[in-house]
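Hi R.,

As promised on Friday, here is the backbone we talked about, encoded as structure tokens. Could you run it through your design pipeline when you get a chance and send me back a sequence?
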């Protein structure tokens, strides 16, 4: 049968490669014809609540009128122009907004294409900074285990080398320096004993690698794809001091945690310090178009500029795309123009109440909620394919990974819709 004779879904299954799938066994796949608000409308008319915010980015819901209007308006005047030697109002206006809401010390914004690329940019910044200040041998990285920072090559090297999704690439990737993930959880009492709080191990690794480690990179407070693990922010406060003492830059990957998801505008807000570099993506445009940015402080930016060759060696073709900048500005205006903190708090309280019964199920290891992140951790791996097979019946699209059944719902989720999501999670915990 020729490709022209295939149905849409048949063509998809035979020719299109989806993320993290076996092309010979693609699993249940739904054809989405339309999206609006909380809902995905399938080709058979079924409406599913998008409990994943389409991989954590669609915080204002699908096809938000303010964001789509901003994209339409921008499309009529300047869809794209190179950022080399040129600039435009959408990039400048977005930059002003970012400086209003991000940590005060971060003043230099580098726009890029996706979250993975923003991590690549941050790592390149760190290496080039160390080179510029006369320490060219400092080009390796330290990070914590169970972390995830993206699928591009350098970002993969700081994902967990043993349990992470990229362990099979060991030997091909750069070898980095790993410490145990912070052992004190966010709601536990902090221990001042460095042997108990993980900082003794961190200091030992950074001291041993002081002549070759450029930066320490980690997801602040929340490890996302690495297991939805929430740890104590005091770890970050003291890690900052150790990094400063040893001349190691500190990078926060806030791609998943940024823009209110954790209950703070940025997870950095849980601690008393600021990073040298922050990576932002996902919710930046409210999920309407791919975009990200890497923001650093004057010390790093001017350090790079003061070295050889005096310019930062990165420049994506679609850097500062005007459509994406317009979408991001509209999304951030939406976020800051509402009581987002109250909204996220309400979602959090409802999830804590409605997911609590999962603790009594025999195969459940833990139940965790932080901000608009709800997790049921099972004692065994959970099949995403089996969860998808139940989506029609539940009216909810959930995509577990590893041992975690989780949701990061859009901020527009109503109480009734959230109850439908939590009921679906409990069903999967009972049945899978």
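Update: got your reply. Pasting your designed sequence below so it's all in one thread:
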């Amino acid at each position: 049968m020729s490709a022209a004779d295939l149905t849409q879904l048949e063509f998809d299954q035979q020719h299109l490669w989806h993320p993290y799938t076996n092309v010979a066994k693609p699993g249940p796949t739904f054809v989405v014809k339309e999206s609006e608000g909380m809902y995905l409308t399938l080709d058979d008319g079924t409406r599913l609540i998008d409990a994943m915010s389409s991989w954590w980015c669609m915080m204002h819901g699908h096809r938000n009128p303010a964001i789509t209007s901003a994209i339409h308006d921008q499309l009529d005047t300047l869809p794209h122009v190179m950022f080399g030697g040129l600039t435009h109002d959408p990039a400048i206006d977005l930059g002003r907004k970012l400086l209003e809401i991000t940590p005060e010390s971060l003043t230099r914004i580098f726009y890029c294409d996706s979250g993975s690329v923003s991590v690549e940019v941050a790592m390149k910044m760190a290496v080039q900074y160390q080179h510029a200040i006369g320490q060219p041998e400092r080009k390796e990285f330290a990070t914590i285990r169970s972390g995830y920072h993206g699928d591009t090559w350098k970002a993969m090297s700081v994902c967990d080398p043993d349990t992470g999704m990229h362990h099979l690439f060991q030997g091909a990737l750069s070898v980095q320096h790993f410490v145990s993930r912070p052992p004190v959880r966010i709601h536990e009492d902090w221990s001042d004993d460095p042997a108990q709080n993980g900082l003794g191990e961190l200091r030992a690794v950074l001291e041993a690698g002081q002549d070759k480690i450029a930066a320490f990179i980690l997801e602040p407070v929340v490890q996302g794809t690495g297991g939805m693990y929430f740890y104590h922010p005091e770890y970050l406060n003291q890690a900052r001091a150790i990094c400063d003492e040893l001349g190691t830059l500190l990078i926060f990957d806030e791609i998943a945690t940024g823009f209110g998801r954790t209950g703070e505008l940025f997870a950095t807000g849980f601690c008393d310090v600021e990073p040298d570099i922050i990576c932002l993506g996902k919710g930046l445009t409210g999920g309407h178009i791919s975009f990200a940015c890497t923001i650093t402080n004057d010390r790093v930016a001017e350090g790079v500029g003061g070295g050889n060759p005096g310019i930062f060696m990165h420049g994506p073709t679609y850097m500062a795309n005007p459509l994406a900048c317009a979408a991001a500005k509209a999304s951030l205006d939406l976020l800051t123009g509402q009581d987002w903190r109250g909204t996220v708090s309400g979602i959090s309280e409802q999830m804590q109440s409605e997911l609590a019964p999962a603790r009594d199920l025999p195969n459940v290891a833990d139940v965790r909620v932080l901000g608009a992140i709800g997790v049921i951790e099972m004692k065994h791996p959970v099949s995403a394919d089996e969860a998808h097979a139940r989506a029609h019946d539940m009216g909810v699209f959930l995509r577990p990974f590893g041992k975690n059944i989780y949701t990061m719902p859009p901020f527009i989720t109503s109480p009734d819709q959230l109850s439908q999501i939590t009921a679906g999670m409990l069903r999967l915990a009972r049945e899978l």
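One thing I noticed while checking it: The chain has a mean pLDDT of 96.

Thanks again,
M.
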